[in-house]
Specification:
The chain crosses the membrane at residues 771-796, 879-908. The protein is α+β, with helices and mostly antiparallel strands. 20% of the residues lie in helices and 30% in strands. It has 13 helices and 38 strands. α7 runs antiparallel to α12.
């Protein structure tokens, strides 16, 4: 008998489309094609020309050499931008990659959607982009599994068996699989899971098992580092050696790091000093080497001076000398880790970890009282004057004051507020402007040093002072200062306020400026920054053929900012750094942001801003006391092209505080802001202006640190643009209002169901409860309290298991229109075409008309209630007061319980006894006049 021919197994890959690709051709688009690699077989699709959402719908077939080892194979899918359609170039631009394992391939006859893949935290070599759930089911005759990488190129992988023998007899076909088309919002949501998830491990749950580790670093995993401390060298004096410009190269495996220039020592000739620590990550195999090499180089000529492990001496200029070093292996808990340099980036200074402190901010109150003896030089007496105050980039003006008296006295009695930062070495400039002329002229000025201004902690009055005004009049080559009046002002630095530098709803600190008013801390907040998974490539290397990301994390709480080291060229960086803050109020928020470092490839004169990858905000009050939370939060950003998931960040949180009920009640019963905010409140508009100035001062201060924290990072962490106009935020706030009122609507619907007898049993029980409350009214409050308690106990089972992160759905980011997003990213002075601005303005007018109508309806209801007794409609007022008289007589003559029972049973009567028309009291109220008819 002839054996049957062997079965030929083929792998069929359907490349369908992609979404939201990165523009690469300089015109906001790209020309993408897909390359699929399986078992050394490479095939590519055609090129979709100039589109960020290409569609291919092409099928690629691959031969399977060993079907028994299918589970061990991998399918690599890469997306490139074709150089022939973007102005040429050496290489095609790399756009993204996804890796699909053989265990995810589906066989013929097993159609269905793929479930969420298992977590890959414990994998020895995690893929750059783990596969995500399928988004579409193909025809029922073939099996498909669709995955989606970070750059959204959907790939359908089919596994098909072919045999040269005749096909078997026909059998009953399997039931058809319904093909479901997804909406735009649903298709964007499959870009990644936008909800936080708990990381299983030693910290999961309460009382989890913990491995022995130093208490200050018990939230992170230990990482092995090779520490090299280069102290100093001696005996290096040669003709080609400049001791003030030498540097040391440290090489270990593939890791090469360069020290800063040496410091020449005056007490010894040919001696240099560095006193610098390097940390080489032994957890990365490419950095761990069997040998350690040290070499000394001349910083001016880059000449090799000598070293150990590479060469003993320089052949041109023989050098003999000694270098003092110390080498040891430790972890990030080592004391030297905070000051160590642990990167091979070109600009290593921008990769170090750092702890920053925000500057101490004060509110400066300038009370302008009056001015006397004002006169203009060579002109008539001024009649309209105002005062302008300047402090750095901040300026404010008083209103105009008129004076017709011969003494030329101008009065204002007006407060101007500024934000000042320590050290208080700036000057406040007071300018007197003459506004009686067409062009305002300067009548005089005075300068006050901030260090000489008195500080106060409460609302006690301070004495005012007179300051002489001077005018600089030029005479030839010099200048003459002349007296031209005096200004009466009261100056003080307010220490009883909290200077807001972040949005009020995400504030991380409410303490006043003066340290004397601080209360003791209530707990300690610990943050362990573990790592990130599946970050998108932020930049390209090697001519655009390879994507890379150099990520670091910034965390901000209170006045303390922390920055992790930069992990160079990694989509799955691991930091494992732990930081601690003191908590003075649990009703505050911790902000964690991830950024891509662009400054490591530029010099100090040409700095590029760091690109934001995403941020997470956690409210401390949502953390239970003395419990460790280890969660993975999605990193989501809103771009002009829509919402995009940039990866995930893994953090560990613990809030340690004494969980005593009296202390908690006392804490929650206190006001959030200091006393001065309530005694002498600041207006909303003025508070927003002061917050913007404070954020700018903080950004300027942190930009002068080493390494600097960019202004773009500080603004993103402080939500400096939270108050700018956005149609998306307007919709989000609208739906928030609807969500708040939803419980009222639900309660009204429940009562309506009771009145309509939809559930007779429930309605009868409500009748019985109503009778009990009428006859025993003292039970009304206890019954309501018991119901609320039972409701809270019932919802305990649905409590959140982990602190919530950023909500894409609540932010309306997944449903935002592209034009709305473009409007959100447009500047205040719009740079768009006039027709686009006109269209957006009309849309804004439409939204404003809806809000205007809603506010008008709410105002009309209140005006109708006022019209009941205001005799605006005499007939209606007569009817109302007459009805009130009748009600009073009935309540005096009939027992109140009988009236309550009759009214309640009438309201709960069966629908067969109801009139479908509105009741008479409602009709009467709707007929009352409002003030809407008086509007022009």
């Amino acid at each position: 008998m002839k054996p049957p021919p062997p079965t030929i197994r083929k792998l069929v890959v359907e490349v369908k489309d992609a979404r939201d690709l990165v523009p690469k051709d300089g015109y906001g688009t790209c020309s993408a094609y897909v390359v699929v690699d399986f078992c050394s077989q490479r095939k590519r699709t055609s090129t979709a020309i100039r589109t960020l959402n290409p569609e291919w719908n092409e099928r690629l077939e691959f031969a399977v050499p060993k079907p028994s080892e299918m589970d061990l194979e991998e399918l690599n899918v890469e997306v490139y931008n074709d150089k022939h359609f973007c102005g040429g170039g050496n290489k095609n631009h790399f756009l993204g990659r996804v890796r699909i394992y053989g265990t995810q391939f589906a066989k013929k006859g097993h159609e269905g959607l793929e479930e969420d893949p298992p977590p890959v935290e414990d994998a020895p070599a995690p893929a750059p982009a783990p596969p995500l759930p399928a988004v579409e089911v193909p025809a029922p005759t073939e099996t498909a599994v669709e995955t989606q990488p970070p750059l959204n190129p959907p790939v359908v992988v089919l596994l098909r068996e072919e045999s040269p023998t005749p096909p078997p007899p026909p059998v009953t076909p399997p039931p058809a699989v319904e093909v479901k088309r997804m909406t735009q919002a649903e298709s964007r949501r499959v870009n990644g899971e936008f909800t936080p998830r708990v990381i299983p491990g030693r910290f999961s749950g309460e009382g989890g098992e913990r491995t022995p580790y130093p208490p200050t670093y018990d939230l992170v995993e230990p990482m092995q580092y090779l520490f090299v401390r280069v102290v100093k060298a001696r005996g290096l004096a040669t003709a080609a050696c400049h001791c003030e410009a030498q540097y040391v190269k440290v090489r270990c495996g593939g890791h090469v790091v360069r020290s800063r220039p040496s410091i020449a020592r005056a007490e010894a000739v040919g001696a240099a000093e560095w006193n610098q620590v390097f940390a080489i990550n032994y957890s990365r195999p490419e950095l761990a080497g069997p040998t350690l090499e040290l070499s000394i180089w001349d910083g001016r000529s880059d000449a090799f001076l000598g070293g150990g492990g590479a060469a003993a001496e320089n052949q041109r200029h023989p050098v003999s000398g000694e270098i003092m070093v110390s080498v040891w292996i430790g972890t990030q808990a080592d004391d030297a880790f905070a000051e160590s340099w642990s990167s091979d980036a070109p600009c290593i200074a921008y990769t170090r970890s750092k702890v920053y402190q925000s500057p101490k901010l004060w509110y400066l109150r300038v009370t302008v009282i009056e001015a006397q003896d004002l006169r203009a030089v060579g002109s008539a007496q001024p009649t309209e004057v105002r005062v302008k105050a300047q402090l750095g980039f901040q300026s404010a003006r008083t209103r105009r004051s008129n004076s017709n008296r011969s003494s030329a006295v101008f009065a204002w009695h007006e407060d101007l507020m500024f934000v000042a930062s320590e050290p208080l070495d700036d000057h406040l400039i007071l300018l007197i402007e003459d506004c009686s002329m067409k062009e305002p002229g300067l009548l005089g000025h005075a300068s006050v040093a901030l260090g000489s201004i008195e500080q106060r902690l409460d609302e006690r009055p301070l004495p005012s002072k007179w300051y002489n005004l001077e005018a600089m009049v030029a005479f030839g080559d010099g200048a003459n200062s002349s007296y031209c009046g005096r200004l009466h002002v009261r100056l003080c630095l307010e220490g009883g306020y909290h200077v807001l530098d972040e949005a009020a709803h995400v504030c991380s600190d409410y303490r006043p400026t003066a340290k004397q008013l601080w209360k003791p801390p209530v707990g300690v907040l610990e943050l362990g920054i573990l790592g990130a998974r599946g970050l998108l490539p932020m930049k390209t290397k090697l001519g655009g053929a390879k994507g890379s990301t150099d990520a670091y994390v910034v965390a901000k709480y209170g006045k303390k900012w922390v920055r992790t080291r930069t992990v160079v060229d990694s989509f799955d960086p691991r930091w494992n750094e732990q930081y601690t803050w003191q908590v003075y109020d649990p009703c505050t928020a911790l902000t964690i942001g991830v950024f891509d470092n662009w400054r490591i490839f530029t010099n100090t004169t040409d700095k590029k801003p760091d690109y934001r990858i995403g941020k997470v905000r956690v409210r401390v009050s949502t953390l239970e006391s003395n419990r460790v939370y280890t969660n993975s939060y999605p990193l989501v950003v809103v771009l002009r092209s829509g919402v995009k998931k940039m990866g995930e960040i893994e953090v560990a949180l613990r809030f340690t505080c004494p969980a005593l009920l009296p202390d908690t009640i006392a804490l929650y019963s206190q006001p959030m802001l200091p006393r001065m905010h309530y005694v002498r409140p600041i207006g909303v508009a003025q508070q927003e202006a002061l917050r913007a100035a404070a954020a700018r001062l903080v950004a300027t201060w942190l930009a002068r640190s080493e390494p600097p924290l960019g202004a773009e990072v500080v603004r993103y962490m402080l939500d400096a643009d939270a108050s700018s106009w956005s149609m998306r935020r307007a919709k989000a706030n609208w739906f928030r209002i609807v969500g708040v009122l939803a419980w009222v609507v639900g309660l009204a619907r429940w009562f309506d169901g009771i009145r309509r007898w939809r559930s007779p049993v429930t309605t009868v029980l409500v009748h019985a409860l109503y009778l009990v409350l009428v006859w025993y009214p003292e039970l009304a409050v206890p019954t309501a309290s018991l119901y609320v308690f039972m409701m809270g106990a019932w919802y305990y089972r649905f409590r959140p298991k982990a602190p919530a992160g950023m909500d894409v759905r609540l932010s309306q980011a997944d449903t935002a229109d592209l034009d709305e997003l473009d409007e959100e990213f447009d500047g205040f002075l719009s740079a768009r075409a006039p027709d686009v601005v006109r269209e957006r303005y009309n849309r804004l007018r439409t939204l404003g008309a809806r809000v205007q109508t809603l506010l008008g309806d709410i105002a009309a209801q209140g005006e109708r209630a006022q019209a009941l007794v205001s005799w605006r409609d005499p007939r209606a007022t007569k009817i109302f007061i007459g009805a009130c008289l009748c009600v009073a007589v009935v309540l005096y003559t009939v027992p109140a319980k009988m009236v309550a029972v009759a009214a309640g049973f009438y309201w709960l009567r069966h629908p067969m006894f109801r009139d479908p028309m509105p009741p008479a009291p409602l009709n009467f109220f709707r007929r009352l006049p409002s003030l809407s008819d008086r509007l022009l």
